[in-house]
Specification:
5 strands; two-stranded antiparallel sheet; mainly alpha; three-stranded mixed sheet; about 5% strand
Amino acid sequence: MKRLQKLLKRFELHSLGKWILLASLIGFVAGLGAIAFDVLGQFVVRYSLTEFAGYQPLDAAGEHNRFEHRSDFFSPWMIVVVMAVGGLLSGTLVYAFAPEAEGAGTDAAIDAFHNKRGKIRARIPFIKTLASAITLGTGGSGGREGPIALIGAGFGSWLATRLKLSNRERRVLLAAGMGAGIGAIFRAPLAGAVFAGEILYSDADLEADVIVPAATASVIAYSVYVQSVPVQSRFIPLFGADLEHTFVSPLQLPAYVVLAVVLFVVGAVYVKTLFASQAAFGRLPIIPHVRPAIGATLAGIFGVSLYHWFDRDLNLLGSLGTGYGVLQIALTTADQLGIACVLLVAMAKILTTALTIGSGGSGGVFGPSMVIGGCTGAAVGLTLQRFWPELFSEPEAFAVVGMAGFFSGIARAPISTIIMVRALTGDYGLLLPTMLVSTLTFMFSQHFRLYRNQPATRMESMAHRGDFIVDVLEGLIVGDLYQKDRKLILIPEGMTLDSIVHRLAYTNQDYFPVVDADQKMVGIFSDDDVRAYLYDDTLWNLAVARDIMVDNFLYLTPEDDLNTALRRFTSHNLDELPVLDPERPGVFLGMLRRKETIAAYNQRLMELKQSSED
């Protein structure tokens, strides 16, 4: 670590080389973390659900099954038992060692970025990895992105702390690690980079400084992770390489607008149900360690009950676990499922995720969002196909668009989600409807969001509180504020102290510029400087302005920005500064007051807030 510190000192503070070096380290660790999490999660599935319930969840087409096993029995209600045990183990692990690791990991990383100076306790990624592997591996409804994002973010935070980097640099490395985790586990390096910058805010704002480090980390993490996948499936999208849907006609666009409205409604239900579940479990008068077990048990009972109520349809068990298997069918052969099935999976996924994550279970919320959005889109597409089969011959296209549109709205991340879904499906024929639906859901969903710790913009982020002050002040110049018309007393450099004292008696002026015979400013003094001589009147006729003035004084020009002015005010604790003509050295133009600078900042801040609200 000391050698790395010495190496970094050779780079400039904002050197691209430094960021690439650090981001590469983070990407390497995030890639290894993604492999470890994937192996551990599949290990838990193999020796819990498959071993005791005879159940092997369906996978997406591009996933690699590391523990292939065929069971000769199936016991649905044993799934509930396995989920209950998994919830108890996960809850005990989290609340005993790292309570911050509960729920969705992405939101915890966002909170650390904005409110904790980018600091994440070193143990949290490890606890999150174990707890999430147990939760998802035993059938809990959640996503893989949360724990992987927290692994990368945690290492980025730890590395910055060990290298004694600044809070700002720690935040950048945290975000880069988060993007690396996403890019690796979803095999979408570009999406991971954009996600890291976009997911931090709920409005159309972007953390531009993290894009290059996040892109580097994400590419490295992706490259490391795919080495653990067989060559034949290493570079195919997660949901296979056969999704080639097309946008047939502009006449389909009104239907996609309808899809956006449906996704908005379902998204509102999802978010409100999740938060209501969190509140309800939080009120339970029991120790938090057992809450995830209760949530997992209820989710398991509901999922298995659906299976029994609807003719033992295994597809309905997609409401448990990641649900990628049933989503794969919705994306390829939606008519095989039917409208009722995809609707049931979407609605059930909302409830099982709310029970799993809302109770404190460890997992992500992006994965379930893809299943909910994809199945909702498939239901809309199948319905339209029933009435207009010639125009809507590919209901699966609505499933692809639904995946992107649903998460874009509730996560407030339209651009990265569009890129993400394209990478997951390899389907680029639906770019126009995807952008339309994602933009509409982003607009509709302004008043609710999936990640509670997202501030609206950088202006509202604690991470940028100081930066924003500088940005606003740099947008204003001294020439707009200094007092040009104010009648100020200028003191000739040879004026006696006696004359100066008598002039001070008839003015409220605090600072007095001193000028030479050519009326050029050569110094300045304050009324406090004069008071030091008041008790010795023998000096009144001996001392002159030149004796009491400061000749090495700070000054401003009309072209200086107010950030420069404020720095000079605070560096010497001054209340006023003279403004001089830059083209005519020494020519006095006026005075700028400190309080006027602060007043201008406050006024500009109010204007910006008002414009953002409008």
